[in-house]
Amino acid sequence: MHHIIEQLKGGLIVSCQAYPGEPMRHPETMAQMAMAAEIGGARGIRCQGLADIAAIKGQVKVPVIGIWKEGDEGVYITPTLRHARCCANAGADIVALDATRRPRPDDRTYTETVAALHDDGIIVMADCGSLADARQAVDAGTDIISTTLAGYTGERAKTDGPDLELLSAMVQEFPDVPVICEGRIHTPAQLGEVMELGAWAAVVGTAITHPTSITGWFRDALPSPDAQ
């Protein structure tokens, strides 16, 4: 197993991303967020976009998982071979891509994409939405599989927290493949649950690096004015 993947074992990966139009959507800001996460004990950083990847890679020592989102429906997380290669060229130690069985914009199959990336020496992480996606990813020789897209592709219901059922199934079926849990881990207790189920590592994003959402959680917990 590659030493970069070994570095992530048993650890927390922090996703440092800001949505379009948000005040924090700036490479320097995301790099500062990543540095703060590393100081806090993160074993890895996941980030989006070539500028952010380059900025973050220049500031942290932990592995960087890079993605490039283009569009907002269908296959849009690192959707083509070109996107994936650009992420690697920007400095990503690991490139994550949509590993669903949906058509890809460049008409390559997922398996063809992984093979080309491996020929380039690139470590690949599969963002899966179902167990069938994970099987395809493993058959393709993917280095890491994850639950990232569970609840977002129509194959599985969107759970309130992490999709523990899918995580458990992936861990049990693929004991020799690192399985990362990503998606809706909002509390330390939930993080503990996914690690107890055998996750290689876990990605936490919104609950750590998205103050707009976190503020909304606290706002929604306030009693209504009429109740005061």
UniProtKB/TrEMBL annotation:
GO aspect biological process, one term: N-acetylmannosamine catabolic process
Native organism: Bifidobacterium castoris
Catalyses which reaction(s): an N-acyl-D-glucosamine 6-phosphate = an N-acyl-D-mannosamine 6-phosphate
Protein family (similarity comment): Belongs to the NanE family.
GO cellular component, one term: cytosol
Protein's name according to its UniProt entry: Putative N-acetylmannosamine-6-phosphate 2-epimerase
Annotated GO MF terms: N-acylglucosamine-6-phosphate 2-epimerase activity
Keyword line: Carbohydrate metabolism, Isomerase
Pathway(s) where this gene product acts: Amino-sugar metabolism; N-acetylneuraminate degradation; D-fructose 6-phosphate from N-acetylneuraminate: step 3/5
Top-level taxon in the UniProt lineage: Bacteria
InterPro entries: Aldolase_TIM, NanE, RibuloseP-bd_barrel
EC number assigned by the record: 5.1.3.9
Alphabetized Pfam families for the sequence: NanE (PF04131)
Known role: Converts N-acetylmannosamine-6-phosphate (ManNAc-6-P) to N-acetylglucosamine-6-phosphate (GlcNAc-6-P).
